[in-house]
Task: inverse folding
């Protein structure tokens, strides 16, 4: 497999703001690639440059061996784009919406109708787009991005503002898209989404890539303790500290007693000897821990 996207030393400034500040990465054919970061990290700007929607100040981008800027007509038929905010034509039904998008690429109405079925919207074909739920609207948006059978699909925060059930249903759809052989590039600030879907992720902040690799590898590279929690009252803080041993932490927030340890096997064995394994929770490091370790914990609007 070769690289379908190659980005080298990409930069985009707005006055003193360095929205993209020396970003480099590549995406392999058939890969599900994620770009993660807090609000204002530069994710969307990076994606828009790669898609050919925005001109970079410097650096190079190749998509399927072509430069996306200036707008490349040969490339437009080979990529599908689902933007962060999608506006549909007023008063058109889901079927009319996707047929309109299909006509821009010379795709037959029958194929457009079939795409509605592929994203699970066949029963909503005659429903005006403004009456679709959030999850259904996102599915229609993705269907419009796929209707011309592109090689690469770009998705900018596709599950933002969706409820948990709609998000999980959307994840199933995104897996199907990737398993059909398409390369998928996703931006998100949901760590569980990236951990579940992506082969590799790039974590961005302040316009730069801080870490890049498979989610599991990034988690393994983080020096983080395992947290073992029991219901408060099950075990006293003093007894938990004795079990935990030197260097471990013990915290009681009134709901759970939590032991933070780098030797979970020994702690679990000690709890088992006391018949205290019922109802415990064991949590190792996650991609969210990696993300917070790299970008900090302060709130960003």
Result:
């Amino acid at each position: 497999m070769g690289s379908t996207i190659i980005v080298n030393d990409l930069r985009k400034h707005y006055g003193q703001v360095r929205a993209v500040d020396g970003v480099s990465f590549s995406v392999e054919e058939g890969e599900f690639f994620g770009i993660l970061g807090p609000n204002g990290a530069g994710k969307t700007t990076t994606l828009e440059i790669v898609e050919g929607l925005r001109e970079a100040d410097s650096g190079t981008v190749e998509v399927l061996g072509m430069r996306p800027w200036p707008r490349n007509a040969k490339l437009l038929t080979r990529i599908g784009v689902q933007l962060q905010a999608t506006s549909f034509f007023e008063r058109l039904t889901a079927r009319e919406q996707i047929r309109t998008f299909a006509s821009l690429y010379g795709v037959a109405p029958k194929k457009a109708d079939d795409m509605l079925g592929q994203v699970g919207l066949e029963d909503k074909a005659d429903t005006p787009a403004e009456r679709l739920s959030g999850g259904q609207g996102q599915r229609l948006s993705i269907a419009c991005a796929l209707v011309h059978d592109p090689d690469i699909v770009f998705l900018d925060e596709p599950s933002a503002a969706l409820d948990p059930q709609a998000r999980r249903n959307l994840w199933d759809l995104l897996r199907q898209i990737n398993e059909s052989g398409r390369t998928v590039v996703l931006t998100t600030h949901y760590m569980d989404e990236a951990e579940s879907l992506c082969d590799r992720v790039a974590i961005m902040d302040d316009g730069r890539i801080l870490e890049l690799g498979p989610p599991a590898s990034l988690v393994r590279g983080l020096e983080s303790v395992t947290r073992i929690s029991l219901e408060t009252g099950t075990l006293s803080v003093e007894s938990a500290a004795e079990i935990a041993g030197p260097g471990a932490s013990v915290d009681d927030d009134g709901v759970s007693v939590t032991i933070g340890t780098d030797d979970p096997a020994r702690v679990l064995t000690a709890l088992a000897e006391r018949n205290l394994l019922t109802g415990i929770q064991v949590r190792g490091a996650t991609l969210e821990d990696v993300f917070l370790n790299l970008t900090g914990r302060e709130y960003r609007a």
User: Anything to note?
Assistant: The mean pLDDT is 91. The first strand starts at residue 3 and ends at 14. The chain has two domains: 3-220, 226-284. The two ends are 40 Å apart (CA to CA).
